[in-house]
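User: structure tokens for L-threonine 3-dehydrogenase, please.
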Amino acid sequence: MTAAAATVTIAERVPATMRALLKDHAGPGLRLCEVSTPTPADGEVLVRVLRTGVCGTDLHIHRWDTWAARTIRPPLIPGHEFVGEVVAAAAGTGGLRIGQTVSAEGHLVCGNCRHCRHAERHLCPRTRGLGILRDGVFADYAVLPATAIWQHRPGVDLDTAVLFDPFGNAVHAAHTFPLRGKVVAITGAGPIGLMTIPVARYLGAHAVVVVEPSPHRRRLAQRQGATITCPGSADLARALRDLDRLDGFDVGMEMSGHPEALTELLAHMSCGGRVVVLGLPDRPVPTDWADISTRMLTVQGVSGRRIFDTWHQVSALLDAGIRPAAVVTHHFAAADHVEAFEVATSTTAGKVILVWTSERDAGYRA
Ligand SMILES: [Zn+2]
Ligand SMILES: [Zn+2]
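Assistant: Done. Predicted tokens:
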């Protein structure tokens, strides 16, 4: 940042109103509106948003499915994946400076429950989702608790920085069980599934089989280092034959949210196999618990990131040469949000990024 930016005050630099991509009614769609710029309370910072990622959660909110109708109370500014710069810091935000490039942990935890007090904040039962239960980052500015802020290194690539949240999901999932020498199946090659592939390879997986119906995403999965890609979970048996591992997969990662994918994945695990469930099915999935018991399978739910262990692991993996930004396929100006959400909903996209301002406007790398 420039020295000049460090002296900026709210009054000089932050306009009274801002653009926000608002869920303004209980129904499908989002509307780009002019709203009041929020003011940070004690312990909060105001961030100027540079780029935001469109996540599956945002697509649920956008199309207003049963989960969204049950969970979201309009008016709400959705969005939780972002990179921005701190433009104002209230009292009690020590250590954060004006001009710093930041993202934030979108799972805002209570700080007082036994898990929070035991440094297991990812298990907080009172977690509030940024852009779900409080206003998020699809706006020119956003207010965030300082305790949730992740400070990027100076000069960080913006498409990499905006991915810390979903890449963190992938990294958390991939570190759940040891992968060295293991035959791994991933069902679903959305952005998180895609970003999991190189991490699994880096962690020593012997083979990574990816199930994904979209040919575009299968191609992306191959580029990410998948050993075998197949269109349906019914093809898992063939993939095992090709790998000469007929007894099943050692580790499975369900990242599609499709009930059939979870059922098929469980059916193709080896005895003693371990399954990470990250995808969110939109209805209960019947499970043969006798089969889980007799084949001694382990099923582990994974949500979000370990706070902030996973964020440090993300940094280390970037240093090791893993490039999650390879899954970014589209950039749209925030004003073109209708098209951006259309593309993000299609199966032709990897990660879709909304650009809220240019680096030069933000003084970034000035
Ligand atoms: Zn997300
Ligand atoms: Zn808590």
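User: Anything notable?

Assistant: Residues 109-110, 112-113, 115-116, 124, 126 surround zinc ion (ligand 2) (CB under 6 Å).
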